[in-house]
Amino acid sequence: MGSLFRSEEVCLAQLFLQSASAYSCISELGERGLLEFRDLNPKVSPFQRRFVGEVRRCEEMEKTFTFLQQELRAAGRLPAPCPESPRAPAAREALRVQEQSEQLAQELREVSRSRSSLRDRLRDLRQHLHAPLGSPPRPRALSEREPILDPSLHHHLDRKINFVAGVIHPWRVTAFERLLWRACRGYLVASFVEMPEPMEDPATGESITWVIFLISYWGEQIGQKIRKISNCFHCQVYGYPESEASRTEAITRLHGQIQELSVTLEETEKYLAEVLDKVAQVLPTWRVQVQKMKAIYLVLNQCSFDVTKKCLIAEVWCPVRDLTQVQDALRQGSVSGSCFVQRVPTTESPPTLIRTNKFTAGFQSIVDAYGVASYQEVNPAPYAIITFPFIFAIMFGDVGHGLLMFLFALWMVLYEDSPRLRQGTNEIWLTFFEGRYLILLMGAFSIYTGFIYNECFSKATAIFPSAWSVATMANHSSWSSAYLATHPSLTLDPNVTGVFQGPYPFGIDPIWSLATNHLNFLNSFKMKMSVVLGIVHMGFGVMLGVFNHVHFQQRHRLVLEFLPEMIFLLALFGYLVFLIFYKWIKFSAADSRVAPSILIHFIDMFLFTSNAENLPLYPGQVPVQMVLVVLALASVPVLLLGTPLYQWCRQRAPRTVRPRPLAAGEQEPLLEGQEAGNSVNATTEDVESGGHSPDHDFAEIFMHQAIHTIEYCLGCVSNTASYLRLWALSLAHAQLSEVLWSMVMRNGFVGLSYVGGVVLVPVFAAFAVLTVAILLVMEGLSAFLHALRLHWVEFQNKFYVGAGYKLCPFAFAPDTWE
Amino acid sequence: MTAHSFALPLVLCSAFWGLVGIAAPWFVPKGPNRGVIITMLVTTAVCCYLFWLIAILAQANPLFGPQLKNETIWGGRFLWE
Fold first, then answer.
1. Which of A86, A219, A238, A628 is most buried, with most CB under 10 Å away?
2. Residue A636 CB contacts under 8 Å (≥ 6 apart), including other chains
3. Over the stretch A278-334, which tens digit does the pLDDT of each residue have?
4. Cβ A514–B6 below 8 Å, yes or no?
5. Range from A23-27, A389-393, A438-442 carrying the lowest mean pLDDT
6. Where do the structural domains in chain B lie, given as residue ranges?
7. Nearest-angstrom CA–CA distance, B54 and A685
8. Please, is A758 exposed, middle or buried when counting C-beta atoms within 10 Å of its C-beta (0-12, 13-18, 19+)?
9. Cβ contact A381:A354 at 8 Å
10. Of A4, A715, A99, the residue nearest A380 (C-alpha)
């Protein structure tokens, strides 16, 4: 079978790399992603490794790239997406990248700095411009109030009037005014006017309408005080030219300066844009290249340096199938074809490699979530592809809900290549998307089980006409309308000829959905179905163990473990399945009064008693049952002592007796190093390693086998009962559906007028929302969880150890930027 | 109301799932996924056939009949003929 059946063969190999071509060889191997490198210098700290300088250089480059990325983001640009994955650069190219990136970063810093200083200056000039422009006009009309402002009155006073103009933050105006008044005691006149347009505040960056003030004063000391106060309040102060002409001259000069500055600023911005464009183009490629380079040096740090041969030695786990590809890669990467790979025998347990495609990956991941398969043991995933959705569907069976689930998964599968679906960041959505094939199969099987349960949004469909004839029963028992009026419920009797006319050909008869005692029938049906399917599932699990015993050359376990296990399971629970089927076939309505109870028979079988009122199912039942119980009980000591005794005998006999252990010994070293918590089956090989005291090993083996026996026997009973959750959940789902229908949707059909039709719309909306939220999401997750539990515990503890670890090949991860 | 035979559905369903589980695996094209597809076909056939079989056997010889409300009996008697 394909590689999904068990792990591929993985071997330990050594790579011999010449120092000159080591980098390119590892780069080649990284592109192909085949090998897992082992760390040969575990005790060396990261700062003492060989290539620590190179790694540091890569990290510096990454720092520069981060700065460039921030600048790009601040300017609101996105870097161009990387077209295809560039290879790791050679040493010379790396140097060039480093130089270029540093140069670009330097340029960017300089240009940004000059741009911000130009901007500051521009803003200053603009403020300055507004001061004389927007300053309050000479208040000629208020000359009686402020006579001092009139320059024509200058010569009347022997003091010179000075002016101070400036700009102040609007919130500080009142405080400023008050302080001026208190400090200068009325020897000044101040007027404030708002600026016509808002401008940027250099400190906070928000745009504020500044207030321009014009203070006229006389006296030098007043002037100094005013300047000090203005300094305190952080306002910009400008000189105020006296005459109209000098004012206009100042204004034109400022205009000119602003114009020049704007032109310069524009040029700077254009240059900055060019630099940013260049950065945006090359940055993604550089980032990928440097990341690859760093990864390669980290791998090279794990190799050991052989001084005598002047080469690097790397130890790798390599799938045997890919050895030729590795050789190819080494030949391509090395200059003179001097690098080669050599397989090395080992006693350690290799990692597990199971190749999956996009369909099987989902199922393999739910198996791996419990435990990665031990090296070369049977993988439960190919069977779980079908049994998991099937067991889910037993608990979820409803045509309508299954159809909705199927359509949702179909949409995800058909559009799986669309980038919008693939690049979602919501974790819950990603979980659903990863499991789209899982959900597809779950929906498909739910439709099938929904047809068998005859439930479609909790309503039964009569695809075939029902097998129960009400009319015949009514005629037979003369149920007139008057009789019916006085009897609220009546039972159809299958003993009457013509009432029951044969089993419904596909699924459950639709009449049961109309019956008030439908749970009596359905419970019995579903419980028996759960037990039958559970025992079949568990029996299948025990049979899968055969593949393990054969592959690991432990044929003694076929007779000493598999056989007693199967006998125990079949003698007790296989017999129960037989009883169920026998009663279904042999007993009909004619003997319904005396029909035996399987449960009582089963209990009596174990207790070796009998119940007089419980008739036997078939003649000779009691002796048959006694034989089966004795057989099952006899298989327990075989299971308990068989394998330990066999190994003890083999160890006691001299080693030259049989060549068989030697042939087996070649395969076994791969298992020896394996010590895991629950690998009760795999530690039996410890005896072969020699050097251990046999008594100590025997005690350990015996204890392991005792635990396994108890676990298996008790597990058979409890796991069979555990499968009854199939019944429980399907009952819960059916009841929830019914409640939703009868209490929500049916109320929409009550009104038969046009108004009733309008009322139906919100009622249906509520029904739809509750169906999706409760029945699809909640019940779906619940059934998923229970199906998972049944697989992980009840099915897998019959054969699966799950103590391995995955092969993580050294490969360059796809870009995951931002 | 209508007589259903037991043999006909048994033969048809067994034939159908037998086709899926026993005959179809021979026609799966060679490729890396051949083993997985065959496993899937056989498992599906076994599971679905067993489930259907349990459903039909459980109803083949009913020990008791459905208990209906009088309204249902009245409707079923006259409308379901």
1. A238
2. A564, A568, A709, A713
3. 888 888 888 888 888 888 888 888 888 887 878 888 899 999 988 888 888 888 888
4. no
5. A23-27
6. 6-80
7. 44
8. exposed
9. yes
10. A4
SS3 A740: helix
E-only strand ranges, A326-416: 340-344
Q: Does A588 touch chain B (CB under 8 A)?
A: yes
pLDDT score at B15: 96
Sole residue written with tokens 């240059």: A271
Strand, coil or helix: A314? strand
Backbone angles phi, psi at A121, to 5 degrees: -65, -40
Structure tokens at A488: 């609220």
Question: Which residues pair with residue A456 across a beta bridge?
Answer: A459
Q: For A160, which DSSP code?
A: -
**Measured distance CA(A731)–CA(A739) in Å, rounded:** 12
Check CB contact of A484 with chain B, cutoff 8 Å. yes
Element (H, E) at A398: none
Give which of B6, B28, B37, B57 to mutate to test A binding, by max A Cβ within 10 Å: B57
pLDDT over threshold 70, residue A248: yes
Nearest chain B residue to A503, by CA: B60
Question: What is the C-alpha to C-alpha distance for residues A395 and A731, in angstroms, rounded to an integer?
Answer: 8
Under an 8 A CB cutoff, do A506 and B54 touch?
no
B31-65 pLDDT per residue, tens: 888 999 999 999 999 999 999 999 999 999 999 99
- Taking only residues 664 to 723 of chain A, the set having a beta carbon closer than 8 angstroms to any beta carbon of chain B reads none
Residue A481 exposed, middle or buried by CB count within 10 Å (0-12, 13-18, 19+): exposed
How far, in Å, CA of A291 to CA of A49, rounded?
Answer: 19
| Spatial separation of the C-alpha atoms in residues A756 and A764, rounded to whole Å | 12
String of DSSP letters for A627-655: HHHHHHHHHHHHHHHHHHHHHHHHHHS-T
Chain A interface test: which of B10, B13, B16, B63 (most A C-beta within 10 Å): B63
Contact A585, B57 (CB under 8 A): yes
DSSP secondary structure of B24-41: GGGGPPSSTTHHHHHHHH
Side-chain half-sphere exposure of A202, counting CA atoms within 13 A:
15
What tokens were used for B42? Answer: 């056989």
User: Is A385 in Cβ contact with B39 (below 8 Å)?
Assistant: yes
User: Which of A2, A390, A584 is facing B34, going by the closest CB pair?
Assistant: A2
- What value does the CA radius of gyration of chain A take, rounded to a whole number of Å? 44
Q: Residue A358 in contact with residue A413, Cβ under 8 Å?
A: no
Question: Do A55 and A298 meet the contact criterion of CB atoms below 8 Å apart?
Answer: yes
Q: Are the C-beta atoms of A190 and A215 separated by less than 8 Å? A: yes
Residues in contact with A812: Cβ distance below 8 Å, sequence separation at least 6, in sequence order: A30, A31, A33, A85, A291, A292, A295
Q: Looking at this protein, which amino acid is placed at residue A140?
A: R
CA A102 vs CA A61, A67, A274, A279, A525: distances in Å: 8, 10, 17, 11, 76
Structural contact between residues B51 and A437, judged by C-beta atoms closer than 8 angstroms: no
Cα-Cα-Cα-Cα torsion A773, A779, A781, A784, nearest 10 degrees, comes to -150
Q: Partners of A12 in the beta sheet? A: A317, A344
Residue in the structure block whose two tokens are 């077209």: A83
Give the span between the Cα atoms of A460 and A507, in whole angstroms: 10
Domains recognised in chain A with CATH numbers: 49-126+246-301 (1.20.1460), 160-240 (3.30.70.2520), 378-467+502-652+701-798 (no CATH)
* pLDDT tens-digit readout, A20-53: 888 888 888 888 888 899 888 888 888 888 888 8
CB within 8 Å: A2 and B50: no
